[in-house]
Structures are given as C-alpha cells and as structure tokens.
Amino acid sequence: MGAMHDSSTRFDPPKCHPNTRVAVLEYIMGWIFGRNDPEAYWILWLYGPAGAGKSAILQTIAEICANRKSILASFFFGRSDPTRNTFKPLIPTIACQIAVAIPEIRPLVELVIERDPIIFDKSIATQLQSLIIHPLKDLSASGFFSNPEINPRLIIIDGLDECNDPKAQSMILRALADAIRAQKLPLIFIIARRPEQNIQLTFNSDSLAGLWKSLVLDNTYKPNDDIRTFLVDSFQEIKSTHPHHQYIPNDWPSESNINHLIKKSSGQFLYASVVVRY
Q1: pLDDT band at 38 (very low <50, low <70, confident <90, very high)
Q2: Whole-angstrom Cα distance, residue 222 to residue 265?
Q3: Pairing of strands 212-216, 43-47
Q4: Which of 55-59, 140-144, 205-209, 220-224 has the highest mean pLDDT?
C-alpha cells in the first residue's frame, strides 16, 4: 500500500507550492466535478517532461479531493522503489482503497479473494474485472456515481512511465479502456506520465479513441510565473529561518539572480526546487 497518495512510505511527497499551478489545478478540479469541457471523456492524460511538476500536481489534487472525500483511489509509481515500479500491486491497491471508500462492496471484494486466492497472479484485465468492475456493477446501475460531489469516482495513477515494463504500461491503459467502453465502468482517471512513444501510440490506438483528453504542462500555464513565486517565497523563508540569517543581505538574491534561475529552470520546477534545497 506504499503507492497511495497518503502512504507513510511516500512521506513528504512533492506537491504544489502555495499560489502556484492555480490554473492547472482549477482546470483539473473542474473536470473532476463536471464543470468544464462539455465533451465527455473518462481519462485525463497529464503529461510533460521530467521535472515539469506532474507528480506534485497530482499529489495536490489527491489531497484536495481526499479532504472533500471525492477520490476513490490513487497509485503513485516510483522507479527506484521495487514495491512501486511494477504493475503487480496496481489493481489490488486500487481495489482495496475502493472497498474502504465504499463499504458496500467490501464483502464482494473479500468473496472474490476467498473464492480465488490466486487472483493477484492473474492478468490486469482479469483482476480489474473481478476486483473492481463486478463489485461496482450494481452500484453503477443504481446511479451511485452520477453525482461526483456526493459519491467519489476519481482514480489517480501517477508516473505510469516509471512502471518497469513498457508492455505492462500499455496493458494497463488498454484494460482501463475496455472496462470503460465495454463494461461501462463509471469511474474517471487522471494518468500522468512523460510523452514517450509507446504510451503515445497506445493513446492514439483505436481501443482508446474518444475516451481521453490530454493536458500538456507547457507554456500555456505560464510555469515561469509559478517558478518565480516559488523562488521568491523559498528564499524569503531561508532569510527568515537560516541560523545565520542576520548576515544575509536584505536584497539577496537580486532580481537578476532570480531571473537567471528562472531562465535556467526552463519551465521545470525540479531545477528550481533543487537550487533551493542545496
């Protein structure tokens, strides 16, 4: 369970600095609650280069939605963590969270495991069908998920490219697409990953056609303005809390220094955060 947004294994995960990424967060929250984009789609693909802040954005969204009780489950892949760099715990982790969020289906999930103890060794599609689709079937038919303000339907999957098996990355997307299209799975998904070729090809395949929309972390959302806010606030905190803060000049760092760091960041929060940290 170390892949959940609130897992102790991921203690102090990256998230958006206050007053940054406001437009991106507002767009995503509007989509979750059906307030923007009348075109129906079930998967929001958040993508951008390494260091663009995808994980921080999804961590922030997960925490906001958790406070509003409007998230069903989350899974954050991690390349360097052997418990989070494989597809095997994905469906079990999501199913467990759904069973906690919706107690009505917990007995159904437990029954599946009792009747089929090796379910976790079966394919992604089979696990999805047995542990999630089937238990949710009656609730879905009753209209349980029709109002996202009352009953959550959001699942977040971050860092799909950090799953160590490229074939599994595509299998996950195809299994979700089949569940949405053929099984009428009433859930919505935010999936974040880098725009690498194998995933781009999968998203562009017929199996996912019409089910997704992309949200690109590019200059549209003015990352340099957000990086400036982050740097100014962070340096101000350093000047206030450093053990030798009394020796730090009031005009440190200079405006030209800030501008230089923003330029070097090239729209990537990772660079700015590393500068501040070290």
Answers
A1: very low
A2: 13
A3: parallel
A4: 55-59
Q: What does the DSSP assignment read for 11-61?
A: -S---PPTTSSHHHHHHHHHHHTT-S-SS--SEEEEE-STTSSHHHHHHHH
The pLDDT assigned to 149 comes to 72
- Residues linked to residue 189 through DSSP beta bridges, in sequence order: 43, 155
Q: How far apart are CA 175 and CA 224, in angstroms?
A: 37
pTM of the predicted model over 0.85: yes
Neighbours of 138 (CB within 10 A): 12
**Tokens found for residue 11:** 């203690």
Q: Which residue has the tokens 């074939």?
A: 167
Helix (H, G, I), strand (E, B) or coil at 30: helix
Q: What is the pLDDT of residues 84-133, one digit of tens each?
A: 999 999 999 999 999 999 999 999 999 999 999 999 999 999 999 999 99
Question: Residues 263, 268, 272, 278: what is their CA dihedral angle, to the nearest 10 degrees?
Answer: -120
CATH numbers and ranges of domains, the chain: 8-218 (3.40.50.300), 223-277 (no CATH)
Q: What single-letter DSSP state applies at residue 254?
A: P
Name the token pair of 34: 């059906």
